[in-house]
Amino acid sequence: MAASSTAELVALFRAAEAILRGDRSIYRDRDARLFVRDSKLRALIARPRVAQAGLAVLDAVTPGLAGQAFVRYRYFDELLARMLADPLDQVVVLGAGYDAAGLRLARGGHPTVVYEVDERETQTRKRELLAEIDPRALERTVFVECDFARDSVAERLMSAGHSRDRRTLFSWLGVSWYLDAAAVDSFLAELASVAASGSRIVFDYMHTSVVAGGTKPRGARLAARVVALQGEPWTFGRAPDEAKDWLAGLGWTLTENMRASELRDRYQRAHSGRLRPAADWVSVADAVRAPDSRRTPPG
Ligand SMILES: C[S@@+](CC[C@H](N)C(=O)[O-])C[C@H]1O[C@@H](n2cnc3c(N)ncnc32)[C@H](O)[C@@H]1O
Question: Measuring CA to CA, which residue among 136, 127, 86, 128 is closest to residue 108?
Answer without folding.
Answer: 136
